[in-house]
């Protein structure tokens, strides 16, 4: 089976490539990239005017299965992924049962294989039941296929426990992903602490609730030599701490999410529960610092923290609504605003949405080098449209970008050399 992508603008930061080229795919791998490839027996895709890049990778999603299938399932989540241009996602462990044992990891992998749309990389829990008390069987989880460890949703309070966990994780070559939030500092906060929380009379979560934990994590990474990846960076202070840590050579990597560089606390003004997220949306000064952090490499990558909830769960008071918003089907167009604003170049954006995620977590893809798996995303950079949450493949609708006019969309998603999404249509793999 051969696929020939003709005349697209091929952007592959993993090999410093940005040129109009043809891409030949054969037997599931990238065979050749040249100016003019002829292959009479190949299925051809005309990519003129389109961007051809390594498949996008999202290292932070919640697929809710097992246990919360009414919010999202592996199937609906992976459908949303490929529709958003993602060929691989990493799923967090806060399911029910928690992914703190081999059975759950194997179940996730088996379901993803059956769905046949995108690669699924499970993230194992650091602690049994996400309780922060007893270590999960890290070696067994690694053997079953987890690519990282995280108690995401919950911070790890016990610093001695985190130190020990990181020592084990280092031994097994796994990063620990930190949900950096001192909930005791945040108390019953539901939004950013500042002018808007005072105005709305809602309890706030100060920026330092995040920064205290980022600082602690950096110190423990330095002490152990282990790798900590800071999830969903939301404050200017966190960006500064991570920048300084990297200068010292400490093994810290970091992600932010599209909502932290495109929305401020203003978004919750009308008590919009779809803008309630953990950590909370911050201020314009934080947005500027995050953009700078993305630009200078302090923030390595963009992830969505895709967190589906049932519409009825969000239809309540702001205080009672669960935190989280979905992102798989909006991440690319919202992130593309960074290119439009001149914050990032196209190659820099692709690097943060594909190459860096693959490099940091040791995943397949993230490159179009010949011999690499043929996970490819084709983007129409000029396509303008209005975001319509009701048209999402995700089960959930908790999207604060609903109704936004955006530009740029994934039009074809290719997994292992097979088209799994094309112009609004999902096509599961046949093998
Ligand atoms: Zn989190």
From the N-terminal CA to the C-terminal CA, the straight-line distance is 12 Å
Q: Can you count the beta strands?
A: 19
Bound molecules: zinc ion
What overall form do the CA principal axes indicate? globular
| Strand proportion | 15-25%
Could you name the CATH homologous superfamily of the largest domain?
Metal-dependent hydrolases
Q: How many separate structural domains?
A: 2
> Low-confidence parts lasting 5 or more residues at pLDDT below 50?
none
What is the CATH class name of the largest domain? Alpha Beta
Radius of gyration: 21 Å
Number of helices: 13
Average pLDDT works out at 97
CATH architectural category of the largest domain: Alpha-Beta Barrel
Say what the CATH topology of the largest domain is.
Answer: TIM Barrel
The major sheet is characterized as: 9 strands, mixed
What does this structure look like?
The protein is globular and about 65 Å long. Strands 1, 2, 3, 4, 5, 16, 17, 18 and 19 form a nine-stranded mixed beta sheet that branches. It is 30% helix and 24% strand. The chain folds into two domains: 2-52 and 372-426, Urease, subunit C, domain 1; 55-361, Metal-dependent hydrolases (TIM Barrel). The protein contains 13 helices and 19 strands. 58% of the residues are buried. The chain has 431 residues and is of the alpha/beta class. Bound molecules: zinc ion. Zinc ion is lined by residues 152-153, 179, 231-232.
Q: What order do the helices and strands come in, and which of them pair?
A:
Layout: E1 2-12, E2 17-26, E3 29-34, E4 43-46, E5 51-54, E6 56-61, H1 74-83, E7 86-91, H2 102-115, E8 119-124, H3 138-144, E9 148-150, H4 159-171, E10 176-178, H5 183-186, E11 191-192, H6 195-200, E12 204-205, H7 208-224, E13 228-230, H8 236-247, E14 252-256, H9 258-262, H10 284-296, E15 301-302, H11 311-314, H12 331-340, H13 346-361, E16 376-386, E17 405-415, E18 418-422, E19 425-426
Parallel strand pairs: 1-4, 1-5, 6-7, 7-8, 8-9, 9-10, 10-13, 11-12, 13-14, 14-15
Antiparallel strand pairs: 1-2, 2-3, 5-16, 16-17, 17-18, 18-19
Helix pairs in contact: 2-3, 4-7, 7-8, 8-10
The protein binds zinc ion.
Zinc ion binds at residues 152-153, 179, 231-232.
